[in-house]
Write a structure and sequence with these properties.
Mean pLDDT: 88
Structural class: alpha/beta
Radius of gyration: 22 Å
Subunit structure: Homotetramer.
Enzyme class: transferase
Keywords: Kinase, Transferase
Number of strands: 6
CATH topology: Rossmann fold
Helix content: 40-55%
Strand order of the largest sheet: 2-3-1-4-5-6
Protein name: ADP/GDP-polyphosphate phosphotransferase
Pfam family, one: PPK2
CATH superfamily: P-loop containing nucleotide triphosphate hydrolases
CATH class: Alpha Beta
Strand content: 5-15%
Length: 300
């Protein structure tokens, strides 16, 4: 009855504004009456949150279809793609990578999350252990943290010397230029999170037995070290943001929007075939994803 009443009302009115509102209501009802929407409502989610989740899931699937097309293009054309995810602890890097990869062919991508270097690795050329994981022809590699550990975490927590830090900061732009010049498509994401939101997520991890493994001794110090990490982060941006390898800032206090918009950025950045047939927009929201700029307001 409600659908019929809305249709009748739309036929009777001459107001374009009212017709748009009716269309929006009908669209919302369709989304809420889906299997996912009804499940969320049955679990006690309020209408607004349920609607947001349903639309997020629908949009995510459409974007993941595009990621499959991108992966096929990378494989068929023997391209090499490297996507780096950096950001403060609990910024949502791992969750974003999961959404990037969960529908991809597992034989054609890798996720790299390296542990603390061994004694042998600590004595090697710093970039050596990372170079071993660079993408092969036809492959996409996602770095869950990268060589940029030496730009922030290591100096902030005293895991490297000042000399090692300075050497890294001088070398990394040249090394990235060489990788890109060799044909690697590189994207560097910084997932930005507020101090308040980070604290909230840490508490959630402490209370959730399925997430407690994510907490480390370094994580527990992150709030106390906020300002020091901020200092090194700003130094990193200032010295490693280049025209050929820019930092892309993703506002990630809202995990869902950060995931969707970071996927959109990758899709918009790489010229894969079939983009024109996408079932959703591939243009990232500039309020959520933006290129780092030195005149930008404070980035967390």
């Amino acid at each position: 009855m409600l659908y019929e009443d809305l249709e009748d009302l739309k036929k009777k009115t001459n107001s374009k504004k009212l017709k748009k509102k009716i269309d929006a209501i009908q669209e919302a009802l369709n989304d809420l009456c889906s299997k996912s929407g009804l499940c969320l409502l049955a679990k006690g989610k309020n209408v607004e949150k349920a609607l947001k989740t349903v639309r997020y899931e629908e949009d995510l699937v459409k974007l993941q279809v595009e990621l499959i097309k991108l992966q096929n293009w990378v494989f068929e054309n023997k391209k090499r793609v490297l996507v780096i995810f950096e950001g403060r602890d609990a910024a949502g890097k791992g969750g974003a990578i999961k959404r990037f990869t969960e529908r991809l062919n597992p034989r054609r991508y890798r996720v790299v999350a390296l542990p603390k270097p061994t004694e042998v690795e600590a004595g090697q050329f710093y970039f050596q252990r990372y170079f071993a994981h660079l993408p092969n022809p036809g492959e996409i590699v996602f770095f869950d943290r990268s060589w940029y550990n030496r730009a922030i975490v290591e100096p902030a927590f005293g895991f490297c010397t000042e000399e090692q830090y300075d050497k890294f900061m001088q070398e990394v732009p040249e090394i990235e230029h060489a990788l890109i010049d060799d044909g690697i498509i590189m994207i560097k994401f910084w997932f930005s999170i507020s101090k308040k939101e980070q604290q909230k997520r840490f508490k959630e991890r402490q209370l959730n037995p399925l997430k407690q493994w994510k907490l480390s001794p370094v994580d527990m110090k992150a709030q106390k070290m906020w300002d020091k990490i901020t200092f090194y982060k700003e130094e990193m941006f200032s010295r490693t943001h280049t025209t050929f390898s820019p930092w892309i800032i993703v506002k990630s206090n809202d995990k869902k929007s950060a995931r969707l918009e970071s996927i959109r950025y990758v899709l918009s950045h790489i010229p894969y075939e079939g983009k024109e047939d996408a079932g959703t927009t591939l243009h990232p929201d500039p309020e959520i994803v933006q290129r780092y700029h030195r005149k930008s307001k404070q980035i967390d």
